[in-house]
Amino acid sequence: MPEDEPVRISVDNNRCHIYGICQQEAPEVFRISEGGSLHYTRSVPAEFAAQARQAVRCCPMQAVSIRGGAGPGGAGGSGIGERRPARPLRSGAAARAGRRRIAVAGGGLAGLSAATRLRERGFDGELVIVGEEPYLPYSRPPLSKQYLAGELAEEQLLFRADEGLDAHWLLDTRVTGLDVHGSALELRGGERLPFDGLVIATGVDAKRLPEAPLFSDRVRTIRTLRDAAAVQRAMHTARAHHVVILGGGFIGCELACTARDHGMDVTLVVHSAPLLRRVLGGQVGAVVGAIQRRAGVDVRLGTEITDWQDHGDTLRLRLSDGQRLDCDFVVLGLGSSPRTEWLRGSGLDVGDGVLCGPTCHAVDEWGRTMPHIVAAGDVARWPNPRFDARPRRVEHLIHAVEMGQHAADALLRGPARAARFAPVPRFWSEQHGTRIQAAGIPALGKDVEVVEGTLRSERFVARYTRPTPYGPQVVAAVAFDMPLELLPYRDQIGHSLPRRTPRRRR
Ligand SMILES: Cc1cc2nc3c(=O)[nH]c(=O)nc-3n(C[C@H](O)[C@H](O)[C@H](O)COP(=O)(O)OP(=O)(O)OC[C@H]3O[C@@H](n4cnc5c(N)ncnc54)[C@H](O)[C@@H]3O)c2cc1C
Ligand code: SF4
Predict the structure, then answer these.
(1) Contact at 8 Å (CB) between 234 and 228?
(2) Model's pTM, two decimal places?
(3) Does residue 111 have its Cβ closer than 6 Å to ligand 1?
């Protein structure tokens, strides 16, 4: 949304980790130098204020502050300005008084982003955000990185953007059901929360392994602050020196980095080969494998754990290749399952997440669009017209911000007038000091071409394409330590490249 007043920004250098997301969101305002330091314009003209504000929302370290301009509270608000006093919530009160109520199920980033956008768009009815965790929304990426390493405290993870929102927060409260036709949420304890509009943003949970000892303190997952605190305690126990990480996705690889930096022996056990193959493809995944090995991580590919024995002070694991591993604890990094258990029986289509149409409106089991229900963030599965008609989920922080915003717009406009949601998904990671930035969906790529730098130098941009009748379509670009060079390739995503025509013989 364009803004008509300049804003002032400042960056807390102690928090900034040079991920470069701000540069991707607002290249006119932020720039990372060749030497790897962040430069930015303190006084941002009105024409770039909206970009700067989006960069603030997408910074996982909450390192950027913004002042001035029109924030969520309206003119004069800062986006992180004063909180207006919240009115006490009485179930059904808004509906009786003829005011409208929008409920948000899930108190994470996507829910926060939707709520903020509703206020920005002038929604002045009642906003009720129901979250199962006892905390206000917080940034999850540092859970496997700076929080685990003890560099960030709990309160530093909280998103500051909820201030000025004038919402009722029902924290520590689980939503247990949805009555679609009666337009009401069912809360733990039996209370009903009627609504006029609903945003579903309940995210995902970390996958568990049925054969792993379910109640052992030595087997952990990492999705919530509480999970991360438990892993942090396990890591900092004086005796703990060996951790096994099961799963070769980004979270597993990042955990390996943090534990290694902490001086632990780390074994990464991965069913497939190479690392990150499903996300980045074999060639680029192999570069991550080389980086991990060089940092001293014991990477075991193409194997899995077949036997678990808790021997009191150690956990003994047997691998499918016959090897035995003794360790202090195991962290599972096996992917995620959408939090839709509370929607079972509601009539919504919840096969692998909440199915949505292109506008983010939820769709029921009979294919009907629900005009008063939208979904956003990790839990939502929708067809991104930039790629094709197949509904997919995307689990990245920037996506939670953007889909929350779009879902809010769509809820206010209704399915007939709402725009289709066609973003370029973007994410980042850091592997032992190498900064990875990605745009698009690399897993859709059939061909990978290194378009800048070289794989060997571990500084490169790789472009992912897939064949279509109109020529190769660019589906993703991934940069290793080349954030600026990524930008032009990011802009190609979803477009077809000209077909290479064979040279004519004279
Ligand atoms: C360890 C870790 C590292 C990550 N690193 C990166 C990274 O480097 N880059 C990146 O782009 N992304 C990363 N992510 C992903 C990113 O954090 C998510 O995409 C983002 O948090 C999704 O936001 P969300 O609001 O959709 O879901 P969530 O943040 O999961 O919020 C959903 C909320 O809803 C609550 N909830 C669920 N069910 C109910 C219910 N029935 N009733 C009430 N409340 C409920 C949950 O408890 C949760 O608080 C990481 C995630 C994790 C866990
Ligand atoms: S996005 Fe990254 S580079 Fe930008 S301020 Fe945040 S941590 Fe620093």
Answers:
(1) no
(2) 0.93
(3) yes
